[in-house]
Amino acid sequence: MDSPTTNNHNHIHTHHLNGASTISQPSKKPKLLSSSFITPAEIHEEFSHHDPSVARINNGSFGCCPASVIAAQHRSQLHYLRQPDNFYFNELKKGILQSRTIIKDLVNAKHVDEISIVDNATTAAAIVLQHTAWSFHEGTFQKGDVVLMLHYAYGAVKKSMEAYVTRAGGHVIEVPLPFPVASNEEIVREFRKALERGKSEGKRIRLAVIDHVTSMPCVVIPVKELVQICREEGVEKVFIDAAHSIGCVDVDMEEIGADFYTSNLHKWFFCPPSIAFLYTRKTPKGGSELHHPVVSHEYGNGLAVESAWIGTRDYSAQLVVPAALEFVNRFQGGIEGIKKRNHDAVVEMGEMLAQSWGTHLGSPPDMCGSMIMVGLPTSLGIACDDDALGLRVHLREQFGVEVPIYYRPPRDGEVGCVTGYARISHQVYNKVDDYHKFRDAVNQLVNNGFTCALLSG
Amino acid sequence: MDSPTTNNHNHIHTHHLNGASTISQPSKKPKLLSSSFITPAEIHEEFSHHDPSVARINNGSFGCCPASVIAAQHRSQLHYLRQPDNFYFNELKKGILQSRTIIKDLVNAKHVDEISIVDNATTAAAIVLQHTAWSFHEGTFQKGDVVLMLHYAYGAVKKSMEAYVTRAGGHVIEVPLPFPVASNEEIVREFRKALERGKSEGKRIRLAVIDHVTSMPCVVIPVKELVQICREEGVEKVFIDAAHSIGCVDVDMEEIGADFYTSNLHKWFFCPPSIAFLYTRKIPKGGSELHHPVVSHEYGNGLAVESAWIGTRDYSAQLVVPAALEFVNRFQGGIEGIKKRNHDAVVEMGEMLAQSWGTHLGSPPDMCGSMIMVGLPTSLGIACDDDALGLRVHLREQFGVEVPIYYRPPRDGEVGCVTGYARISHQVYNKVDDYHKFRDAVNQLVNNEI
Questions:
Q1: Where is this region: Disordered (chain B) (predicted)?
Q2: What's the predicted TM-score (pTM) here?
């Protein structure tokens, strides 16, 4: 199959974007011999449930789940239904603990107590921000104390800030960020300015909420540096909303040094919907505890234990982390190998598209993980958020391409600039044809004189 | 198969506890002819994934889900995974609305806006009680204002009261209830006394949280009467925690008249884990809104819309309500027929056990739905909660019987009373043998003087 060469370990093998060798023998156990890694045929089989008519280059929104992990989940679901009482009393807690332990090792947390499993990053944000609301209510924080967030924070998190922080009397400050962006320094500069603004009003900055990988536009934020600046500048707590990060960028709790950190495992770690972890750094003195908002029998026993039982529900997605890890380890280099190959491929595909369309990338390669923003031709006339969504729908329905589109408003003085960017992703199931399909679709739209104004006609 | 006769519609048919006729032809469409109802063999097939070595008489804790609904759920899950973006943009909202509409009709709510779908009753309680906490914080309620609940309220709900009401400055009053109980009047009497206590401290009673069917011990509470009393006595809002009710007892929002009402569909309405509805009565003037605690894009668009998107997750259990309804309608009389036959059977089985053990039932038949409390022989020596749990484990591991046990402490002056009750259930998959197995296990334990 036509593919750019990556990981040239052996010249005689045909190489694929995901780095699997065609001479591999099918095997499920991670071995030292390269011949036992997953084959392209096996990868295809694992994702054969994906709609084959769709060029699926939006792994960022909903992730993906291989057939073997889906099967593990179904087994878990049926096992519960077979005898749920026994499952509840004798198996559930052990299974959740096993998943938490795997995650602890993956993210380099010190204690498994620091790892709670929740449904998704949205839930994790609610947990942290509800705690913030209680702090305002109970007088730990004073009215007007500041909570900082990025302007490009995920929309749901912004709503959560409104629901819990603003409503409780906190003052929310947004850090404007440049896009396109050329370097980490641009981000650091804006962040420092926002900190100054926050402190200048004489209030404490109680919490900084920082994305590790912003959603739209998609950029990898230098979180380690920003956390250090927060510590220097007296920000009380830092919460990293890293919805995308695990399996997409490097995730190391000791390295990053945040107080709270959350990431979804169903986006880039092959788990079924849905599962995320919320890391809460252990503090020497007992502070005010985070609680899961759905209060059940385990209330007061620590967030991890509370989160492991929030009433009768399907916990199977949280129990198949071992199966997801097993899947990951069928690839050369495990998750690190997958990340690297995804990154190299998405940069390569992004550059191919930008060149074909005469546009540019939204950030340098070192500020992206497995996703990258690619400028769209200006002739498409993307002039508002609705245009971006309309183009996305048009690409899905008319061309079988699934890709999110971002509308980037012109800044003062800018004329004829790129106002639309596509966020393309690369995951192990992708083929070069997916990106060619997208390239050709856009070129066809341009050649036909398509503009977004036509969509609302 | 050996079974007590129920629903004697036709003498020549063998009758089964679930009322299905053996001469039925397999059919999935509800028809007028009795021959098209689900057959015993089909029921057995639908629940063939249950552990056959277990006498499963605890439907109350985790419910059950027939194979055809599990299959519908798997199809929904795979459909999402196939093209999740399309599912999210074009299918999810319609599917949730369809489920909400079915539920609205089932429970006789006036508007589909009044029906939100959440994970379970525990989540619904958190939604109502978090709203209570905000009311205290924002000064709508004053510190010390009262929230009432039953002493037999579910443990998780008691924790939620602690986490949201007590912590926010509210004063929680528990209504003690008698058990064993002989009549609704005993419950009403205690409830009125608790209301008086609440009002006597000069504070407002802002909320009453009342179980429709208590969990342990399991008793059907006369909620309609209690709601009326609340209205008469100036209780501001009433929240009915009816985790068990839909598919187990009658559920009618107009009839009951509460402000908030929640019930799980995975217990007695054959849905997979997990799905519950939270009914919120529409009020003419816009009041303070309930919110889902997991805040996402739809924040501020009403609880039902908020609850239909709380981030990326598996909504399939919420989407298969149509399949569950289809399953229910394969039975004669639909859910009403199932309820009645379950009730009759569990009362019959309870009386059989009580007679065999020389004990009694914990409540009269008209105060139970599809579950009933049966006294255990005093010689078993259940003297604390741990004993009850230990006996439950012993029954599971040594006898293959799954049944929850309740420890009922002796009251002052009581000597030699029954201190342990089993909460048995009956659902369409049960057979008489399940209860014989339990009967014999207990008799064996008594004879062996364990």
A1: 1-31
A2: 0.92
